[in-house]
Specification:
three-stranded antiparallel sheet; 1 helix; about 5% helix
Length: about 90
């Protein structure tokens, strides 16, 4: 199971196959804190995406990040918004 938080957008992979449940890995992206005061819709995060063994996520400061679902290793990252221009992201990363 994968869970995430609002800003600062922590991601956790949980192993639910046996108790006690354990965190397999966690990922916390480095972000531009200037995104917080310019975010129009709060600091929410509206979901992760899973496709072909990867977690696709976005961050409030406009990064779209691909993670390996088994290890949490960052596979790639692109910038899609600039908080210095008042741009942030809270929508799903389709």
């Amino acid at each position: 199971m994968f869970v995430h938080s609002a800003f600062p957008n922590h991601v956790y992979a949980l192993d639910l196959t046996k108790q006690p449940y354990v965190i397999k890995w966690n990922y916390s992206p480095k972000q531009d804190t200037k995104a917080v005061p310019v975010a129009c819709c709060d600091v929410v995060h509206r979901g992760l995406n899973y496709v072909e063994g990867k977690i696709i996520m976005h961050t409030l400061d406009g990064q779209v990040i691909g993670l390996d679902a088994q290890t949490g290793k960052e596979l790639w990252k692109v910038k899609n918004a600039d908080p210095a221009k008042g741009e942030t992201m809270t929508a799903l990363a389709w």
